[in-house]
Amino acid sequence: MALICTYAESHKNPSGPGDARPTAIQIVQDQNLIDKWQGKVALVTGCSPGSLGAEVARALHATGADVYITVRDVAKGLEVAQRISADKHAGKIEVIQLDLTSPDSVQHAAAAFLEKSKSLHLLVNNAGVLGHPLHITNNGVDIHFAANYLGHFLLFQLLRSTLLASASEFETRVVNVASVAHRLGTYDLDDLEFKNRDYDASTAYAASKLASVHFANEIERRYGPRGVHAFSVDPGITATSFTKLTPGIVAMMEKFGAGNLRKTPEQGAATPTWAAVARELKGKGGEYLEHCGETELCTEDSFLAIGHGKDAYNEVKEKKLWAKSLELLGLEDDA
Q1: Which of 7, 68, 149, 205 is labelled catalytic?
Q2: For the segment 171-188, what is each residue's pLDDT rounded down to a tens digit?
Q3: CATH superfamily for domain 27-329
């Protein structure tokens, strides 16, 4: 079956931020969804000013949906909400405080959302960290694994019933913002505290993003038949994230001449938005998406190459990750 790569041509010769590659709003326009999703509900994590998450939220709000955004700093979230409200679309835009490294904060955020909405059709797990020195959270995992993966896993578990209930009226989707770095990632479920191995921020980040890919695949396996579909996506290198990259990743990008791959936040938000709204993906899930399209296995040893890593689809590891995550959080499996 042919891959869906509607925007492949615009990605062939990138020339940097603001080039021909699509923006998130363009995706919504191309899907003819401006103000068409009134009554639908979306939750987007990691929506600080100027972020990729803020642009995903803006695009989803343009559909007319009610959009809830999460931030660690509520004042910054209110700033984003005010800017999005100025676009004058039909849906609400509200802010919820969330620190994904704290299970208590995740529980409070989920409860706050459920007080405000009885439906949830789109969950975009976007928030994350990059380049942190070794820091072990209360869960016994490093901060990258906690913020980029485990906190979102807990959030999904707390909102799972609402997603499933909402699927009866509208196909619901979960979008995990991963990274091309997943191709370099591996995680050790027996040593998430880095007690028996050297710590490197770049490899810890890559491991957390592979976990995000596996997380989406297992959601699809478990809940896709019940109408909750999940995708993992690479948003690309945004202008906002570029200066936060660790020296090792920066050196790799410079080696391969990746500067032209950088995107504006609006462009970086395009693939997560496409995963959330594209009608071409109806009934699908458990896929890693890139450049607003489906991908095949990457066979080139290059940071610039397109495609998913050789370990992106691994049912055995995905099931073990799910079980370990439940154990870390003290949760029961609903299977």
Answers
A1: 205
A2: 999 999 999 888 988 999
A3: NAD(P)-binding Rossmann-like Domain (3.40.50.720)
